[in-house]
Amino acid sequence: MQKRQFLNAIAGATLALTATVTASTAMAQDKFKIGLILPMTGPFASTGKQIEAAARLYIAQNGDTVAGKKVELIVKDDTSAADVTKRLAQEMVVNEKVSVLAGFGLTPLAFATAPIATQSKTPMVVMAAATSSITQASPFIVRTSFTLPQAAVAIADWAPNNGIKKVVTLVSDYGPGIDAEKFFKDRLLFNGGQVLDSLRVPMRNPDFAPFLQKVRDLKPDAVYVFVPSGAGAALMKQFAERGMDKAGIKLIGTGDITDDDILNSMGDVANGVVTSHHYSASHNSALNKKFVTAFEKANNGLRPNFMAVGGYDGMRVIYEAAKATKGAGGQALLDAMKGQVFESPRGPMFIDAQTRDVVHNIYIRKVEKVNGQLYNQEFATLKDVKDPGKTK
Ligand code: VNL
Q1: pLDDT at 376
Q2: 93, 268, 295, 299: least buried by Cβ within 10 Å?
Q3: Distance between CA atoms of 40 and 244, rounded to whole angstroms?
């Protein structure tokens, strides 16, 4: 009797277990999970905030189901520490069984996660990080942000035609800064310009003062700057405090320096600064106006910057790929991301099927006051710019 009861109990438990597994599998199949890993705290929190807000806006506008599945956006804060990004990515793949890893606010965070994407065959959408070589770190990476060489080459072509021949470069000392320096320098020299010195500042908590003093002493026509999104205001402030603009030294750079979300707080020193980039909040298109208005409305008047656009377009790439695969993940989902062509708030763009990197217009812009607000006003367009950093 006892033995029989015991066996019955086991049979019951097994049945219950089977039922649970079946139910949870069905639930997993009914969901399409996107693991969004971002710096939400610390010095690069603005990047996380912009991308999360843009992803939520995309879902609000396009619905929270795709290919018949409920979209679940799982947002995690990596505090901009690469070991945390990697651990979170691992947990998302193993425990949450996400179909896509997304976000990646800084280059080292993307590099740390690339092996997880490769091993688990999970598409990884880089929405922020912009060092050229990132897409080569895993065949599962697709990028919707931009690359520093795209922007750097454009401003190196503009400068010598506009009275800027002697330049000092000043960049953050890590991946995107090194790209920004190299591609600007090579192109400026090719164009007959001169680079008097190349200065590199620490990526975290930089004190720009001694570097700007050095620039002042060298008396170039301009200082060319790359600092990551969020750091531009501090640099502008010190540039003004040292009277660099009054000394006749111009400031040029990639658009990271005149970041849309903090541009107004920079004040008059930013007025007139010329930069090259793929996105301005004042980009003149119906789609962008709609995007900016909706973003500001949903976020207490916060202006979207280029990080927001990388996040928004990344969601577009993910949604359209999921529709094409009817919700299937892995290699099929990755393949459906490659070659997508569409209109972004930045203008036309596509994902190069060979490199999995973004191809888009680069605009030359000048900071101007529009209705009392500072904006990056686009005045020249280089069309369909591929990443100059790709050798294959
Ligand atoms: C990176 C490139 C980060 C450009 C940025 O801001 C940026 C990067 C946080 O690749 O780390 O503006």
Answers
A1: 98
A2: 268
A3: 34
- By most ligand atoms within 8 Å of CB, the mutation choice from 40, 229, 275, 277 for ligand 1 is 229
- 46, two tokens: 């603005």
How far apart CA 332 and CA 337 sit, in angstroms, is 9
Ligand 1 lined by 135 (C-beta under 6 Å): no
pLDDT at residue 4, rounded to an integer = 55
Q: Determine the Cα–Cα distance for residues 365 and 273; give it in Å rounded to an integer.
A: 8
Instruction: Compute, in angstroms, the gap from residue 108 CA to the centroid of ligand 1.
Output: 10
Q: Is 129's C-beta closer than 6 angstroms to any atom of ligand 1?
A: yes
Mapped onto helix, strand or coil, the DSSP state of residue 35 is strand
Residue 347 phi, psi (nearest 5): 125, -165
Question: Are the beta carbons of 306 and 229 closer than 8 angstroms?
Answer: yes
Which of 135, 375, 376, 142 has the alpha carbon at shortest distance from 254? Answer: 376
Q: 276 CB less than 6 Å from ligand 1?
A: no
Strand order of the β-sheet with 69-77 is 65-66, 69-77, 31-38, 100-103, 124-126, 141-143
What length does the chain have?
392
Cα angle, residue 223 at apex, residues 204 and 256 outer, rounded to 5°: 50
Name the residue type at position 250. Answer: K
Could you write out the DSSP letters of every residue in 317-333? HHHHHHHHHTT--HHHH
Smallest CA-to-CA distance from 356 within 371, 334, 374, 373 is with 334
Q: What is the C-alpha to C-alpha distance for residues 211 and 173, in angstroms, rounded to an integer? A: 13
pLDDT for the residue numbered 349: 98
